[in-house]
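Please go through this chain and its backbone structure tokens and walk me through the local backbone shapes. Keep your notes short.
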Amino acid sequence: MTMPILVGTDGTRRMGKSLGNYIGVAEDAVTQFAKVMSIPDEPMRQFFTLLTEVPLAEVESLLASGQNPRDIKERLGKEIVTQYAGAEAADHAANEFRRRASGEDPDEIADVAIPRDQLDAEGRMFLPRLLVALGLEKSTSDARRDIEGGGVNLGPDRLVVKDPKAAVDVIDGLLVRVGKRKIVRVRLA
């Protein structure tokens, strides 16, 4: 028996973990859904036929309907997530994706402890070091690139910091965001 090779989330190469273009069956529902929403429009037919139980006639009707591709991908995402996590998790993932796409913070934000002895006398820390200490970046070099690119913002007002040499007042409950998907709340220990 032969099967077609499923393309990855990049829409061109085969799906594979080593290529970084995969949707893992053990990933949480929100991550699975977000990855489905990131695929290009062209491979949607292949994803529907190889990964869901939606009848082929219904798939053809959906794709020929002239609907917004985003709406069709949402249906695809719900179908895939439902198989692994259930319908309730699929609905939650779709709602969470819409919230995040509109710029809102997620419902659940991880708390990360920062020992007070890592702060200077004024209760400040250089932003690249803070991003590494919070686990938002692996190195201060990566953190500097994010900062210089305008991808780091702080607090409820989403203050964008572009100076990699900036020292930040670290307070309990400070929200730190890197890009659209990484967000944590500082807890002083």
Q: What stands out?
A: The domain at 29-101 is CATH 1.10.240.10 (Tyrosyl-Transfer RNA Synthetase). The helical segments are 29-37, 44-51, 56-64, 69-85, 87-101, 127-133, 140-148. The chain has a mean pLDDT of 90. The chain has two domains: 29-101, 110-188.
